[in-house]
Amino acid sequence: MDEARMWSGVEQGRLRLADLLDGLSPEDWERQSLCEGWRVRDVAAHLEGNARFGVRDWFREAVRARGNFNRMVADSGRRLGAEPTTEIVANLRKYAGSRRVPPAPGAGADSTIMDVLTHTQDIALALGYKPEIPPEDAVAGLGSLWKLRFPFNPRKRLAGLRLVAEDADWAVGAGPEITGPAAGFLLLLTNRPAAHEHLKGPGLEVAARM
């Protein structure tokens, strides 16, 4: 998938998420997401912050976090999560077409579509919804994840397994197979336990021990 198509997928993913968020109750916004330590509102705010933050914004966040990238991402998500939910949704729509990326090595269209689609599942699945994740967009995100060393390093962590998407042209590795939708592999490669509810195959038990 070319870069322009990836950014189009990012925009559509943000808009779909905004539509989902529009229908949530106040209690839903406070629910824990699949992203450990983040409520639904924190995850949504993280995504809208990534879309609208510029260099100065990220510099300010980095200073607050004393240069620790993980702390910067975690703290900024929780701080932005304190915004009114109407503002979070409005910003997600307003900046849906943004091509801004966080100051991380290799950040681009592929890492952004991965972030949007993975976090969309963090929100939707935690609330009992099945989100729309186009398989071809998920594959673009998987391409970013598979080459990522930090923080998940899935190529090393899942070495010795064969991962095969059933709804898209994506397969990696060799060994006992894990199969399922491409969206499910976004969860597996980012080490979400919920991945095991959406995938199957003899390699799944092995992956659970990794």
Please give a structural write-up.
By secondary structure, this protein is mostly helical. It folds into 2 domains: 3-108, no CATH class; 136-208, Nonspecific Lipid-transfer Protein, Chain A (2-Layer Sandwich). 56% of the residues lie in helices and 5% in strands. The protein has 11 helices and 3 strands, in the order H-H-H-H-H-H-H-H-H-E-E-E-H-H. It has helices spanning 3-22, 26-30, 40-52, 55-64, 69-80, 85-94, 109-126, 135-146, 154-157, 182-189, 203-208; strands at residues 162-165, 171-173, 177-180. The chain has a 3-stranded mixed sheet with strand order 2-1-3. A hairpin with a 5-residue loop joins strand 1 (162-165) and strand 2. Helix 1 (3-22) packs parallel to helix 7 (109-126). It is globular and about 45 Å long. The chain starts with a helix and ends with a helix. The mean pLDDT is 91.
Structural class: mainly alpha
Mean pLDDT: 91
Proportion in β-strands: 5-15%
Major pleated sheet: 3 strands, mixed
Strand order of the largest sheet: 2-1-3
Low-pLDDT stretches are none
Molecular shape: globular
* Cα separation of the termini: 30 Å
Number of helices: 11
Secondary-structure map:
Layout: H1 3-22, H2 26-30, H3 40-52, H4 55-64, H5 69-80, H6 85-94, H7 109-126, H8 135-146, H9 154-157, E1 162-165, E2 171-173, E3 177-180, H10 182-189, H11 203-208
Parallel strand pairs: 1-3
Antiparallel strand pairs: 1-2
